[in-house]
Amino acid sequence: MAGGPLSGVTVIDLTHVLSGPFCTMLMAELGARVIKVEHKGKGDETRQFPPFVDGVSLYFAAINRGKESIALDFELRSDHELLFEMIRRGDVVVENLMYSTLERLGLDYDELQRINPRIIYGAIAGFGHSGPLKGRPAYDPIIQAISGMMSVNGQPDGPPTKVGVSMMDYVSGMLCLGGINAALYHREKTGRGMKVDIAMLDGQIAILEGALLHALNGMPHVGRLGNRHSCVTPANSYATADREIYLAAASDQLWKQMCVAMDAPALAADPRFDTAEHRHINQDAVDREIAAITKTRPADYWVEAMRKAGVPCARINTVEEAAAMPQVAARNMIVEADGIKMAGNPIKMSEFPDSASRQPAPALDADGARIRKEFATRAK
Fold first, then answer.
1. Is the pLDDT of residue 379 over 60?
2. Which end of the chain has fewer beta carbons closer than 10 Å to its terminal beta carbon, N or C?
3. For the chain, what is the mean pLDDT?
4. 204, 169 in Cβ contact below 8 A?
5. Considering the chain, what percentage of its residues have pLDDT values greater than 70?
6. Is-contact 240 299, C-beta < 8 A?
7. What angle do CA 103, 72, 41 make, to 5 degrees?
């Protein structure tokens, strides 16, 4: 985002793989200068993740666009001192390293706060920097497993299932972005930096929705729901004459509007379905009645009928179909960097343009010589 609201903010990016790089990529999109610090000779491991286009990992390219790269050997005193000088002059440090690695390298918050009292330190870890699981390694599926998320995902008669994307990597990256931006605002008022401690497990617990509320308040256990909702009926996928749709009527009024659109007045009058509570108790019957109607016409007919009735409804698209939607194009959600297409920036801001092209992800140590020269003076 040219100019961007974070213009003038320098981010020292010590992150790798996905959660941290997604956070710092969004910061770059919002105008920050992001210097990605990588291990000399190896770099971020996602540089080796397939598939590749002209030798560049699509995974790495999408999550590290718009950044600078310097490769350091942390065992060399000169490189260690250079990194500390970068942190002295920087505004934000973001890391998602093992806590033991941070302490060994002297990169924990207490040490960096002594170097730069104004530094904002964004940390992402599976279990955060406190508690009995502090320091335990984790990837996104581990968090989905331990949090209970997998127990409520999947079909009722199937095994526990993870979400099809690395949900908590993205969520924790966004939570860290929100915390860092709040910390920057606080620093404007006080002059003091702070630590933003994000645990992937915390984020997953925070978004367990109805399943957690049931568990905490003595309600029946919420098991695997398939495509149903824990609180709303109807909210499910339904077969039509040609393909599946998803339909949700979350209120009594929407239920009545849906019944009108389906030309099914008997459903609206049925005492089993006259309130949200009754519909939820009789989920199986609701789904049978709706499915018997939706299968009589094609998906596009029902999507249009529900649109006119004001009822949320959509075809269940493939990713290819979703990416080709005019709505996605209108919102500039497919951008290009050096010939590689990728997701755009979902944060739209009225004061800043949203270009259709992006600066590509850097080659390993592509900016190393220039960054070393810039920060060398006091590092000696």
1. no
2. C
3. 96
4. no
5. 98
6. yes
7. 115
CA–CA distance, 142 with 132 (Å, rounded to integer): 16
Residue 181, CA atoms < 13 Å, CB-side half-sphere:
17
Quick check: helix, strand or coil at residue 56?
A: strand
Question: Would you please indicate which residues are annotated as catalytic (active-site) residues?
Answer: 229
pLDDT at residue 378 is higher than 80:
no
C-alpha closest to that of 101 among 55, 39, 163: 39
Which of 72, 69, 96, 97 has the alpha carbon at shortest distance from 84? 72
Q: Domains in the chain, please, with CATH? A: 10-207+331-379 (3.40.50.10540), 235-239+244-315 (3.30.1540.10)
Taking Cα atoms as reference points, which of 95, 104, 105 lies closest to residue 129?
Answer: 95
Reading the block at residue 338, the tokens are 């050096």
Measured from the Cβ of residue 207, the count of other Cβ atoms closer than 10 Å reads 12
- Residue 60 is encoded by which pair of tokens? 């790495």
Q: List Cα–Cα distances, 334 to 61, 177, 294, 326, 340, in angstroms.
A: 14, 21, 33, 11, 10
- Residue 237 CB partners (closer than 8 Å, separation 6+): 227, 244, 245, 246, 247, 316
In sequence order, the 6+-apart residues with CB closer than 8 A to the CB of 182 are: 196
- Residue 42 to residue 178: CA distance in whole angstroms: 30
* Residue 129: predicted pLDDT: 94
Distance CA 93, CA 210 (A): 35
